[in-house]
Design goal:
The protein is mostly helical. The protein is about 95% helix and about 0% strand.
């Protein structure tokens, strides 16, 4: 029983770590560029309003 318990704990830890890593990579590649575009749009809009 102890072996299966450790195995399931290891699998759960591996899955959670994998999800965390994938989420971090997706955040860097998808969310941050989207935020940069939104900031650029806001800056462009605010600069047009100033003119």
């Amino acid at each position: 029983m102890k072996n299966t318990d450790w195995k399931s704990i290891g699998i759960m830890a591996g899955i959670s770590l994998g999800v965390f890593v994938v989420g971090t990579i997706l955040n860097k590649k998808v969310v941050e560029p989207a935020l940069e575009k939104a900031k650029a749009k806001k800056i462009a809009a605010s600069s047009e309003e100033k003119k």
